[in-house]
Each structure stands twice: as C-alpha cells, then as structure tokens.
Design a protein that fits this description.
Elements lengths: L25 H28 L1 H13 L4 H33 L12 H28 L3 H5 L7 H40 L9 E5 L7 H11 L4 E7 L10 E8 L2 E11 L4 H5 L3 E4 L11 E4 H6 L5 H4 L3 E4 L2 E9 L14 E4 L7 E6 L4 H18 L8 E2 H7 L2 H35 L1 H9 L4 H35 L10 H27 L3 H5 L3
Parallel strand pairs: 4-9, 6-8
Antiparallel strand pairs: 1-10, 1-11, 2-10, 3-4, 3-7, 5-8, 6-9, 7-8
Amino acid sequence: NLQPLADLHYNAGSGIFDFSSEPAHMPTLTTLSIVAILLLLIGCINFINLETAQAVRRAKEVGVRKVMGSNRIRLVVQFISESTLIALFSLLLALPLTEAGLLIFSEFIPAGVIFSIIEVLPFLVGILVVVGILAGAYPAFVLSSFLPALALKNTAFANSSQSRSAYLRKALIVFQFTFAQILIIGTLVVGWQIRYILNKDLGFSKEAVIYFDTPWWEKSEKIELLKNEIRTLSDVKDFSMSDAPPSANGWSSSTLEHKNKTGVSKVNTFRKNGDTAYLDFYNIKLVAGRNLLESDTVKELLINETLLKNLGFDSPEQAIGEVVSFNNAQLPIVGVVKDFHIQSMHNAIEPVVLGCENKNFNCFNLRFHTTAGEDLKTSITKIEAAWKKIYPDAPFSYSFLDDTVKNFYQTEQRISKLINTATLFAIFISCLGLFGLASYSTTQRTKEIGIRKVLGASVQQITLLLSREFLVFVFIAFILAVPVAVWGSKLWLKGYAYHIELSVWMFVAAAIAALAVAFITSSIKTIRAAQSNPVDSLRHE
C-alpha cells in the first residue's frame, strides 16, 4: 500500500508507524482540541458574566473616576488590565497543575514528553493576551459606558443598554450549559460503548487464558520438550498449540478461490491455525462437519460463517466436502464454525479459515485450574521454571488474552478519561457562571424578595420563584444540545462495526443531571436571599 509521508502518524489503515497498529487518531485529536478551546471560551464567558453581575458595585467607582477627569479609554484600559492580570495569575496557577496533569494521564503520553516553559512560552504569551482581552473587553466597555450622574445616583442600570447586556448574560449561560450537556451525553455514549465492546460475546472464550510464543530462532524440537514439561504440571487445566490466539494484534490473509456453477469466487481470507484442541480450548462452536485431524501441514480447512456466505453457499452442510484453492493448494472444507472476532469491533467479522500444521506452532495457549491472585502467580512461576529448563537464555514473556482484547480499545479508554475530565470542568465552570447570574439576579430583586416575604411568601416559594428562570435556561440549553450530541455521537459510533444504539435514557439522564446541578447552584444564592430579613431587603439601595 502506498501511504503519504505526511499521513504517517495518523494512517490507521497501514499502521506501519513505529510498528504500531494504533497510530494517532486525527479526529480524536481535533475533537479534544475543540473541547479545550471551548472550555477556555466558557471560562472567558464566566468572567464576563461575573464582572457584569458585579457591575452594580463598580458603577459608583466609574462615576467618581469620570467626575475626577478620567476618560473612557483609560477606564477600558484599566478593566482590560485587570482581566489580563487575573489571567496571568490563572496562568501561573495552571503551570504546576499542568505538570500534575501529565502525571495523571501518563499512561498514554509518549515517553520523553515533558512540559518545557521555554518551548511553549510564545503560546502562553498568546493565550495570556487573547484571554485577557477576550474576557475583559465586554465588561470594560459596559462599565466604562456608565454616565457619571446615573452611576452616582445608582441608576446606571435603568437604561435599555443594560437590559440588552442582561439578555447577553442569559444567552451566554445557555451556551455554557449547551456545551456542558453535549459533553455529558458524549460521556454516557462513550462509556456505554466501551462497556459494550468489552462485554460483547466474541465467539470464543477469553477468560483466564495466558499465551506466549517460543523463540523463533530456537530448534523446533525444544517445543516438544516444553509441551512435555507443561503436561506434568497439575496447575494447568488445559492447553493448546497454535500460531496465535483467535484475536491478536497480528494477522495474515490470502486469497481463497472456489469454483462454482457461476464462475470462480475469490475472497480475501484471514488465516488462523491451531491444533485439534484449539476449538474446544477456546469454545469455538462447530456448526457443521467435523474438527480438523492432526497434521504437520495444512491438508483440510474449517471456514467461518462469514466466509460461507461470501462463497455463496446456502447452508453449512452444502459447503462440507467442497474443494477450495488456498495458498497454492487444493484443500477440502471439512467443517464450518460460528463467527468469532479476530480483530477489534471497529471492523466487521472477516472471512476466516482454520487449518492444522503442528510443525509450525510456537504459541502456547494455557488455562489454569485457578485464577485467584496468589495461586495464579504460583502457577505462572511454575511455567516460567519449565521455560527456563528449555530456554535458559531467553526471557519468559506472557500475555493474558483478555488484556490483549482490552488493549484493542486503548484509544477509547483514553478518550473516556479525557472526556470525563472535560465534562467535570465544563459543569464546574458553567456552575460558576450560573452562580454569578444568580448573584446578579438576587441583587436586582432584593426589594421584591422583601415585599414577597412581608406578604407571606415562604423561603421555598421564593427559592423556586428565583430558580425557575435558571432552570428554563438549562432546559433551553438541553433542547439545543440534543441535535448536536446526536450528530456527534452517531458520527463517533460509525467508527465501529458493532456499536450501541442511542437511547432516550441517555438524554433524559443528561437533562436531569444538568437541571439538578443548576438548581443546587442557583439555590445556594437564592436561599440565602430568601432567608434574609425583609427589613434589610426593603432598605436595600
């Protein structure tokens, strides 16, 4: 296959970079970058909301400064300088947290990657300037626009421009919770899909199986010696010889040809070779025909149901006895097995043939009587001792088959961890913005709260009254988030031949979670306001 050199890190089809079958996934990197930018953006939005919510407290300051001769440009520079200074402190706090983040996510950060301030200094300076201006510009222009007379009379918010800014704050809150709910739904989808692919029936038994390969450079006679050593171990419940487990990182395929009435069927077919115990050991079901006979070279074949269909047979029995051309040999089909996964669930089940060629088997597949921690460790130690007798100079290395299958989905597990973290940050930041808006709203309605309490309203009634508006914002955000989340989830799930179906409960759960978080956040401020003394509220200016 030809591959563009610029695509070397990302081409999962060829998978030749660093001999890896899991190169970097560009859509994932792009998605995570967008999530990071949006998190930074809602952080800026929060600053805008909190600053404008506190604007009533700074209105008199603006009025005094203007009376003392300060012009609007100086006020704008002052407020942007304040936001830039806050961004600088945030950046200084972020540096050690970044180091901690590299440790938290160390399992999927390439070896040798370190955080160097010198290398990222231009980026940090750029972020500082952009965030400082982005977060501070709107509050700066709003606050600096107050007329001195109105500001000193505490009526700076009586004009229409302030009502427009109130609408903007509400729109920003809706945006924040839209993004947060998209992430919540995405988290549920990713988590459920990972659970599905890790628990789906693979067509073979992978539990409590370890496998290892003998050194390819050693004499084949030593394999028989090791087999005899293993047979003497009472810890070993069962074992089988093969070229590889049913599902592994490596694979091999050839074109299989079959002549029929309509012509010649040619199918690219994957090879899996094992001894006569292979089917029973992995609990691979035989649909029709018989098992393979012992042989040092491949003399007959088993085929899976997918290959059966590709060859055009109407039933498994019809294929038994048919002769096919495979690897330059004419071989009979003696049996049909149920489909099983030889790759990850990103791919559909492929056509597979199984043969027996004992002389080329160097993969030991073992299952022990016990899988308990210490007992299993003892059993593996005995296997290693047997290995050392035969291969004293070769290191003993083994793998658990369920771990191998799990490693097919490392990218998904990494995405899950990252999106969970991003979701927590998004919810937390959105709650800060909502808290700022609740603070502003309760400040504006202080006298109304006092009057309602004098007229007999309870704390619960006032709390529900003040929180209702915020819950409406979250519900609007949910309506906006659903189509985006559905589109993104379906796009991501297209990468799997076998995947979950989107369910209503995922969206209901996201809505309930967002509404609950919003209600709790807004209630912190509204309950305090509802419990205040009506006399103080009616004196409020």
